[in-house]
Amino acid sequence: MAPTLGKRKREGADISKKTRKASSEGPESAALNAQEIFRRHFETQFKPLPVIHKSTKIVDVAPEDDLEEESDWGGISEGEEDRVQVVEHTDTHSRIAAMSKEELKAFMSSKPPKPTTEPSLLRGNPDTNEDDDPSEAANLKKDLALQRLLAESHLLEPSKNPTLSGNNRHKATDLRLQALGSKTSILKQEKMPMSHRRGIIAKQTEKEDKRRREARENGIILEKAKMKKSSEGKRDRGVGAPGVGKFSGGTLKLSKKDIFEIEGPKRSSSGRGGRGAGRGRGKRGR
Amino acid sequence: MAAPAPEFLRFTTHKSLTYRLVLSTLTGRPVHISQIRSSSPTNPGLAPHEISFLRLLDSITNGSVMQISYTGTTLTYIPGLITGSVSMGGSDMVKCVLPETCRRGVSWFLLLLCILAPFSKAPINVRFEGEGVITSATETGDVSVDTVRTAILPLYEAFGIMASKLELRVLQRSCAGTGGKGGGGVVELRFGSQVRLPKTLHMNRSPGRVKRIRGVAYSTGVSASNNARMIHAARGVLNPLVPDIHVASQYDQAPLVGDKSSSSGKKRTGVGFGLSLIAECSSEGVIYSADVPAPSQGGVTPEEVGKRCAYQLLEMVSQGGCITRVGAPTVLTLMAMGSEDVGRVRLGKDVVGSEDIIRLGRDMKKFGASSWGLRDAEDDGSGDIIVSVKGAGVGNVGRKIA
Question: Which stretches does UniProt call biased (Acidic residues) (chain A) (predicted)?
């Protein structure tokens, strides 16, 4: 215990000394501190930076002096002195300092964390889409409006007031939702008395029948009637239910087909008989 | 038709007792375990946490029968169906109250429960509470709940179990109390994804390189600055190796539990801190984890804990393979119970050679699963072993009806 204690003490002292040093003499310390980060920014000031820090403007030192002071700086070759020297320093440690709020939330939530969350950088990259001007956005807006008008113009046609309001507005919303992938229409009424629903369905089928009958009588070929969809081939039987047959009234009913599927194609009876007999004997023996 | 008299599989000693019970429940074969700590003069028989596990097993299954001998050294268990949490008016949460004498972390229960949960009939929702719930890692070798959530639960995704339906909610954190006993935490597990047959796994490729390190530092009832100190020390070790390290820090109050001796009738227990780290690899689904708690008697600085945890993580990485020792029993059991297909998983030599895994393999053979095939991974000089496991096609117990 004693040696570790001693070591720890020394380490702590070292750290405190370092921090004090950093706060007082800044540029001399090898550790990364605020002063040096500013210095690095200053060095890169020759390159037009997208984000200009105010602090770098204040510092006004000749760049040559600055570079000479830098301990880890490799030195400038004589020929290049008239050209602009570009130094790029990327420090991963300072870039990814802490989890972003979203990432922290995702990681510390009660669900197991997703394996594909990408690390978000603390400092987002400077705006890359600075070049797009307001006219671009306006154009996009107009584009969208035009597309919508084209898609929904048929709604406006028969109505008296040619504006997207009232009933038309709801219809337009429904169209847009369906374009976005909505499965059901918002105009479809979900709950109504059974008699109403029956009536509506009966009316629909009657209309459709009438249309088809008249078309047939007039010799018009219509599209194929949509077959009534029978239930899917594999229905979900639930976890606990038997995998075969129909369970009703406490009995599992197996159709002929089920039995045939279980048994498989019939083989010669002699082989099966032999095996069955063998099993029987074994039981008796025990 | 009368059921034939069950043939008991006979085992001895308390070692991997619970894994045997889990295998018994999954395969439906009754077990008879004798000589449970029979040589111990002071604490013979089943330990408190084992009794708690039996109670939990009883509450999530239907029709299981367990008999414990007078001394507790012999246990007979006839498994029933895993029904999960059947709603009995009000909440569908099964409550599992752990006694104060429990020395194992709640992760010990969670790992076993999660193996059973995919085969349940209904979703399994269990709430662990009481004076024995330790959410942190423990000195008895259990990992923390954070590791279970971030390193073990993601493994289930590969078996066709939706990770989005799994939830492990820590409502109250707690470290091990005085003498490593008791805590006072509250943990909820919601396992909402049940399958007929879990898919098998093919993880025979190289684990790749560690691309990021995540973790949780937790302090319960002690200064929150311990978190920062642990994280600082761990990063000191790991920063030169991986640039992408994030460790979240979590500070909570110590839980209040009832205490008759004090004047207010309540006292705070489960004070402590610890660090859980996971390393995600470039190969998908490979997660190494490490867990170090501060011992319950104290005397260890947060720096020491952080450093030890970082070194433990490095040790786990050096062991290689795609699954760590903590996750290997889960993965191997699910593969063996899964579809009748040969799955492969790449494990480090030290992981395969550990006592637990070898005993698990032997037990599985005894329970009727096929034996494992082992061969060296040839593609590199890692010395890993590829374990081939053929599924027994046991799958969901609900199948036993048909």
Answer: 62-72
The CATH code that applies to domain B210-319 is 3.30.360.20
Count of CB contacts below 8 A, A vs B? 74
For helices B17-27 and B328-337, angle between their N-to-C axes, nearest 10 degrees: 20
CB contact under 8 A, B284 and A115: yes
pLDDT of B157 strictly over 60: yes
Of B150, B248, B396, nearest to A99 by CB-CB distance is B248
Instruction: Please check the confidence at residue A8 and state whether its pLDDT lies above 60.
Output: no
3-state secondary structure (DSSP) of residue B31: strand
Q: Do A98 and B246 touch (CB under 8 A)?
A: yes
Q: Compute the nearest-CA separation of B251 from chain A (Å).
A: 12
A112 touching chain B per CB within 8 A: yes
CA distance B305 to B187: 24
Of A119, A242, A252, the CB nearest to B212: A119
Task: Render B319-362 in DSSP notation, one character per residue.
Answer: H-BSB-TTTHHHHHHHHHHS-SSEEEEEE-HHHHTSHHHHHHHH
Supply the DSSP symbol for B70: T
Residue B31: partners with Cβ closer than 8 Å, 6 or more residues away: B8, B9, B10, B11, B20, B21, B24, B75, B76, B77
Per-residue model confidence as pLDDT tens digits over B7-23:
899 999 888 999 999 99
The whole-angstrom separation of Cα B396 and Cα B27 is: 10
If you measure CA to CA, which chain B residue comes closest to A242?
B402
Which residues in chain B touch residue A243, judged by CB atoms under 8 angstroms apart?
399, 402
Beta bridge partners of B390: B342
Confidence class of residue B316 from pLDDT cuts 50, 70 and 90? very high
Domain boundaries, chain B: 210-319
The length of chain A is 286
**87-106 in A: which are within 8 Å (CB) of B?**
92-93, 96, 98-99, 103-104
- The set of residues, in sequence order, having a beta carbon less than 8 Å from that of A197 and lying 6+ positions away, is none
Angle (CA) B273 B133 B81, round 5°: 140
What residue segments make up the domains of chain A, in order of their start?
Answer: 2-95
**Residue A25: pLDDT band by 50, 70, 90 thresholds?**
very low
For B14, phi then psi, to 5°, come to -85, -5
Torsion of CA A233, A236, A242, A246, to 10 degrees: -50
CA distance B300 to chain A (A): 10
What are the percentages of helix, strand and coil residues in chain A, rounded to 5? 55, 0, 45
CA angle B306, B308, B313 (to 5 degrees): 95
pLDDT of residue B49: 93
Q: Which of A239, A246, A253 to mutate to test the interface with B (most CBs of B within 10 A)?
A: A239
pLDDT digits (tens, 9 = 90+) for B347-378: 999 999 999 999 999 999 999 888 899 998 88
